[in-house]
Amino acid sequence: MSSTSQTSELFTSSASTLTGTSPQPSINSGDMVTLTSPSLTELLQSIEDIKDTHVSPPRPQNPRMSYLLVEELDWETFDRLWHDSNLLKAVTATLWRANRTVIFRIMPNRQHEGLRSSFDEILLRVLLTMHLEPMTHGFRCFRSARVYGDQTTKEPDCSFYPPASLGPGIIPSPSLVLKMGVSESYSRLLQDAQWWHANAPTRPGLVVLIHTTRTPCFRVDIEIWTHVCNQYGSRESAPSHLQISQHLYVQGSTVYGGPLRLDFELLMRRPPNPLTERDVVMTDQQALYIATQME
């Protein structure tokens, strides 16, 4: 039996918890284009073709294609992708070495960059109010910085690394990752969240998912997922699962469910100074600002 036929759908859009492991991609979805054994030239052309579907506003009868599944790559091409995260532009990728499989995620450049820059800006601005800034306190925000698991690797849209994750001799691993997608790829976003739970060298305490719905009206949902230990488990040991802990959505000029809070200890991987430090709060106004970047 092929590795493709062994894979199964891991999540549904109604899932409120994510459990188990994610060794293989799930491919049974209408929002994905599939290629088998393409050359690098064919792969590049397919990515450009998918980008072209983002040029005009999507229609229900012609939805955006946001994902490209590539199977059975030759080893030379796969190794180039594995070792060079800058080989392909305006995409993020998840790679599985065991069967030379890659899932590329393609987003509109303007929306993609607008979201990442606005999220960075909000996060850094709030930290500055606590007298925390990157140059003197050693934390970093990265965009599409690849993280390597054992036999798989992945790129978030945005990630936050506290000082404890960047020291000498430490395998860098973010404390927060952000992924965005359009409505037809929500199940894929859940799979992205599960990857971080199952494969990151150190699990991020905060996984932020942002997705849009365009019919019957434009809506942006922002979810925060955190790790929860199963009964009799401890924070450091399995079994545990990801669970949605906060959710807001923006529709029109109204925000429902806000504000959102990013737990300081999960973000910085240390307790806050009670005199000057606190949770990072995303206000309704900031949520509206993010939503405008995705229209």
List the main descriptive attributes of the protein structure presented here.
tt1808, chain A, single chain, disordered N terminus, six-stranded mixed sheet, alpha+beta, 295 residues, eight-stranded mixed sheet
Helix and strand topology:
Layout: H1 3-6, E1 17-18, E2 32-36, H2 40-52, E3 67-71, H3 75-83, E4 91-96, E5 101-106, H4 109-129, H5 134-137, E6 140-142, E7 147-148, E8 152-154, E9 158-161, E10 176-182, H6 186-199, E11 206-213, E12 219-229, E13 240-251, E14 254-256, E15 260-262, H7 264-268, E16 280-282, H8 284-292
Parallel strand pairs: 2-3, 10-11
Antiparallel strand pairs: 1-13, 3-5, 4-5, 4-8, 6-9, 7-8, 9-10, 11-12, 12-13, 13-14, 15-16
Helix pairs in contact: 4-8
Description:
The chain is α+β, with helices and mostly antiparallel strands and 295 residues long. It folds into two domains: 3-106, no CATH class; 109-292, tt1808, chain A, CATH 3.90.1570. The chain contains eight helices and 16 strands. Strands 1, 6, 9, 10, 11, 12, 13 and 14 form an eight-stranded mixed sheet that branches. A six-stranded mixed sheet has the order 2-3-5-4-8-7, with helices on one face. It has a two-stranded antiparallel ribbon with strand order 15-16. A hairpin with a 2-residue loop joins strand 13 (240-251) and strand 14 (254-256). The chain is globular, with a radius of gyration of 19 Å. The model is unreliable at 1-29 and 58-63 (pLDDT under 50).
